[in-house]
Amino acid sequence: MKTISEIRKEGIQALTQALGPVDMARFISSYENGSGDYTRDRHQWLPNDPDEIIPKILERQKNRNDNL
Hints:
- There is one protein chain.
- The protein is an all-alpha fold.
- 68% of the residues lie in helices and 0% in strands.
- It has helices at 4-19, 21-29, 38-41, 50-66.
- α1 crosses α2 (21-29).
- The longest helix has 17 residues, at 50-66.
- The radius of gyration is 20 Å and the shape is extended.
């Protein structure tokens, strides 16, 4: 298994090869570190009730299938 350091190095090399050094740097700089604690705070924007979530998932699947 590769270390995260090896994966990052290969990723930077692949991006540099695909985009060139300038656009690779621009791509990397477009990402920002997040803030906060997702695990602690997710209850504020995610519903906890499966009865609330499941109908929405089923409706999205139906709409997706209808558009195929």
